[in-house]
Amino acid sequence: MSSLQDYERKRNVRRSGEPKAEQRASRGEPRFVIQKHSASTLHYDFRLETDGVLKSWAVPKGPSTDPQEKRLAQPTEDHPLDYADFEGVIPEGEYGAGTVLVWDTGTYRNLVEESGKPVPVARQIEDGHVKVWLNGEKLTGGYVLQRIGRGSDGRWLLIKVDDEEADRRRNPVSTQEDDFSEE
Asked: Is 173 helix (H, G, I), strand (E, B) or coil?
């Protein structure tokens, strides 16, 4: 069973303009993308490339650079790797209708090791604790995704690691410019 079945089931990609549900091998360093998405409510989609797909969480308040801020991150369906470059307006009547903008993108590095070897991100997700170093245009440094619920209550938190890139004064979702304007 493809991990992209939910993605495919929810969309008419011919009408929405979104990428097709194709799982493929990663090329080079794994990527991350954060997309600003004005759907029924404005939120930020945090996506990590792993196992040929983008594992995804919706972050209502967007990422923070303050380690004391814990941001709710609701898991969403896996997305195809090509979604990392997707920007556009998903038309009314389609799942996720609204404007999607790439807010930040870059590569990431896995920070979890066991016996001197990296623990695959897919296993970290299963275990409910993911730790990565983002090398983005707007965000850099360590970030943790921590599961705080199980089953239908599968909520997560996105937390900035207290490292040299942490900044308690900076609020990147309000201070980092983008070309996004809500209608």
From this structure: helix
The rounded distance, in Å, linking the Cα atoms of 9 and 28 is: 29
Q: Tell whether 17 is covered by a domain.
A: no
Residue 1 has pLDDT above 50, yes or no: no
Q: Which residues of 100-124 are buried (b: 16+ CB within 10 A; e: fewer)?
A: bbbbbbbebebbbeeeeeebebeeb
Residue 99 pLDDT > 80, yes or no?
Answer: yes
Count: domains in the chain: 1
Phi, psi of 9 (to 5 degrees): -65, -35
Specify which residues 44 forms β-bridges with: 36, 59
Tokens of 124: 């970290």
pLDDT of 125 reads 95
Q: Give the residue with greater pLDDT, 24 vs 55.
A: 55
